[in-house]
Amino acid sequence: xxxxxxxxxxxPGTTIMGFGLIKVVGKKMEFVQMNExxxxxxNDPYTKLKLIFERTIELIDTYxxxxxxxxxxxxxxxxxxxxxxxxxxxxxMAAGLSRQIPITEYLPxxxxxxxxxxxxxxxxxxxxxxxxxxxLKTLPxxxxxxxxxxxxxxxxxxxxxxxxxxxSYSGWDAFVKSNSPQTPKGxxxxxxxxxxxxxxx
Length: 201
Description:
The protein is an alpha/beta fold. About 40% of the residues lie in helices and about 20% in strands. The chain has helices at about 45-65, 80-100, 110-115, 125-135, 145-160, 170-180, and strands at about 5-10, 15-25, 30-40, 65-70, 105, 170. A six-stranded mixed beta sheet has the order 3-2-1-4-5-6. A hairpin with a 4-residue loop joins strand 1 and strand 2. It is globular and about 40 Å long. It starts with a strand and ends in a 23-residue tail after the last helix.
């Protein structure tokens, strides 16, 4: 029996979170689902983050993905927008890490390159290529869900060379270790990610 696994791809955002799932059987992939979490009507930023976390957990508990691929925030001039996007990504990652699911981050250009062969491709070009490759009958009105699906497909194409594509975390412990810098010689220790799970009250 061929090896099977589910990959969940996420395009994080505080306005729309797009996601897509593919099933990998051997060396072939099959489309499972794609959709969006619409957040425009919520004004409170913390409510949005809560909904992102809950929706990600719901997807995990429903489809039981073996791996998660997430689009990493790109560097832009608008600091506030980058901060909001980073928070959305962090919450989605935390949901996956809480279930001990391996997570890999991919830069937008890497995803576009993997899907279309062009790192500067438009959302529409990415969506049309996915439609052709996965045999999708129709495309959604908003293309955030196809961006999430693209992250999953990118991971499928590149899983044998993750080390040169993006950052990968096997679970919460790996995330903490990766984001806790070592103390430099003769200097002070920088900011660390503190694991509070085992701290006594």
